[in-house]
Amino acid sequence: MRGGEKVLEALAELFPSADLFTLVYDPTLLPPAVRRLKIHSSFLQDLPRCTRWYRHYLPLFPEAVKQLDLRGYDLVITSDAALMKGIRTDESATHICYCHTPMRCIWSGYENPYYGFGPITRLALSAIRGTLCRWDHEAAQRVTCFVANSQTVRGRIRKCYGRESIVIYPPVDTWRFVIGRQATQRENFFLVVSQLVPYKRIDLIVDAFNRCKRRLVIIGDGPERRKLEQRAGRNIQFKGAVPQIQVIDAMQRCRAFVFAGEEDFGIVIAEAQACGTPVIALGKGGAAEIVKDGLTGTFFNDECVGSLLDALDRFERASFDAEVIRASALKFNRGRFLNEFSNLVRDIQVQSKAQSRAPF
Predict the structure, then answer these.
(1) Radius of gyration of the chain, Cα coordinates, nearest whole angstrom
(2) Of 67, 238, 256, 309, which is most buried with the most CB atoms under 10 A?
(3) Which domains does the chain have, with CATH numbers?
(4) Strand locations in the chain, DSSP E?
(5) Rounded to 10 degrees, what is the CA torsion of 195, 200, 203, 204?
(6) pLDDT tens, 267-314?
(7) Cα–Cα nearest to 210, from 188, 187, 228, 186
C-alpha cells in the first residue's frame, strides 16, 4: 500500500458504487474499500505472473488500455503514473486524471541506472520510447482536467503534456500515524521505510551508514534487497515487509527517518512527520514540499554519501519539536483530500453541464 494505492483507496471511499478498471491486480492485496468495487482487468491479467512481471509488459500497455471499454460512463477518474490516462471514453464524458507523475521511464529515466533497467530493457525502451511518448502526449490532450499530487508533478505535467493542473496532495492517515507515548525518549536508530528498488537510492543510505556506523533499520522489500544486504554492515538491519502497525511503531521510536530518492510526493515522509519524527531527506522533489529544513528535518542537496553524512552531522547538532513536526503534516490529512477532490469533481461537473446547455 504505497501512495498510489492509498489514493485509489480514498477514491473508492468517495465513489463506493463505481466500477474499477485496471491493467492487472492481485485480489489478495486489495483493501476492503477497493475489494468491494466491481473490478475489470485487461488481457494482461491472463499473462504469466502478471502482477510480478507487469513492468516487462510495458510495450503492450497501450493496447491493453485501449481495449478497456468505458463507453457509457459520464464521469471517469484515472489514477495514473503510466498510460492509464489513454483510456477511451465517450466524447461527452468528464475525464479527471489524478497524475502521480508522467511515466518516468519514457519521459526522463529509461537510461538512468537508478531505475534498475538492464541493458536489454534499456535497448527495448529506446526503440519504443518515441512511440510511447507520442501516444501518451496525445492521450493527455483528451483529459478534461489534470490533478497533480505535488507542485513538482505539476511542473512535469506542464513540461511533458503542455497542460495545466490543480494540485491536491495525497491523503495521509494522520489519525493513525501519531506521536508515540515515548516521544521524548527516542531509541538510538535511524529508519528507512521503502520499496527496495534502485531509484529509491537505498544504496546511498547504506553506504553512508556503513561509513558513519550509526544504527539503521530498513523496512520494506523489493528486487534490490539481496544486493543491499550483501552491501550492508552489521549496524544495518533489514526487517522486510511488515504490518503497518509495526511501521508506525518504528516511526514513533526512531531518532529520524531517512529518505534519499527524488520522489514525486513521498507520502511516507508525511507519515513519519505525522508521528512527530524529523526527516533527513534529499531536498528535491516532493520532500521539498513536505519537510521544512531546520524546523521539521534536515536536507542534503547532492545524491552522494558525503552530502548525506553532512546532513546527519547537522541533524545531531539540531533540536526538533515533535508537536511542531506533527502539526506540519496535518495539512496532508485524509479528510482534506476527500473534501478537496469531491469539491473539484462537483465543480467540474457543474461547469460541464453549464457548457452543454450553452447556445452555439
Answers:
(1) 21
(2) 256
(3) 3-171+334-357 (3.40.50), 190-332 (3.40.50.2000)
(4) 19-22, 38-41, 69-70, 75-80, 88-89, 94-99, 145-148, 165-167, 190-193, 216-219, 236-240, 256-259, 279-282, 297-300
(5) -140
(6) 999 999 999 999 999 999 999 999 999 999 999 999 999 999 999 999
(7) 228
**Would you state the cell numbers that stand for residue 360, as one nine-digit string?**
452555439
Q: 294-324: string of b/e by CB count within 10 Å (b at 16+)?
A: eebbbbbeeeebebbbbbbeebeeeebebee
Q: Check residue 52 and give its pLDDT.
A: 80
What angle, rounded to 10 degrees, do the helices at 322-329 and 267-274 form?
Answer: 140
- CA dist 102 and 293 (Å) reads 27
> For the segment 192-241, what is each residue's pLDDT rounded down to a tens digit?
999 998 889 999 999 999 999 999 999 999 989 999 999 999 999 999 99
Is residue 255 within 8 A of residue 276, CB to CB? The reply is no
Predicted TM-score (pTM) of the model is 0.85
Tracing cell 482487468 back to the chain, one arrives at: 41
Q: What is the pLDDT of residue 1?
A: 67
* pLDDT score for 7: 92
The whole-angstrom separation of Cα 126 and Cα 138 is 19
Select from 110, 130, 131, 108 the least CA-distant residue to 121.
Answer: 110
Of the candidates 254, 261, 186, the residue with the CA atom closest to the CA atom of residue 216: 254
Sign of CA dihedral 340, 342, 344, 347: negative
Contact assessment for residue 287 and residue 258, using Cβ atoms and an 8 Å cutoff: no
List the 75-80 sheet strands across, edge first.
75-80, 94-99, 145-148, 165-167
* Residue carrying C-alpha cell 493527455: 140
What pLDDT score was predicted for residue 3? 75
